Amino acid sequence: MYKNLKEFAQSKSFRGILIGLGIAIIVLLIFQAGVAVGHRKAAFAYKFGDNYYRAFDERGPRASFMIGLRGGLPDAHGAAGAIVSLTLPTFVVGGPDNIEKVVMVRDDTIIRRFDEEIQSTDLTVDDFVVVLGEPNENSQIEAKLIRVLPPPGEGSGMRIKMRR
For the whole model, what pTM was predicted? Predict the structure, then answer.
């Protein structure tokens, strides 16, 4: 059929094979990216129960957090809600999903209240915060950005029950 390798390399069959291999490699890379993201989220949820009680020091493990896990895996990259407990460099945020998340404030964490940048020592219990960050191996969210906002009002459309 083909007399030499150069002739085969210039054929439509060879180009088709290369395109097919390229598409297969791209599909496998996309699949691997999905597996990696799913694994991180599942690892966060798995360790969440083991490390949950550490946020509450002497109170020990609590069984009530399992109620919040029934709806699926908790979001590992952020939190929104009121600060329930504050022991810097960590604090606990109670959110609308009834899951309390431990947030770790790092030295490079940006904390803003409206337009001004504030320090972690300016945070108080019952402050309403939105946190963006990365999960760590202790099921904490390592905060990159913390925004202190006014608590959502009746007309805002958000209904978050703040613990007192």
Answer: 0.54
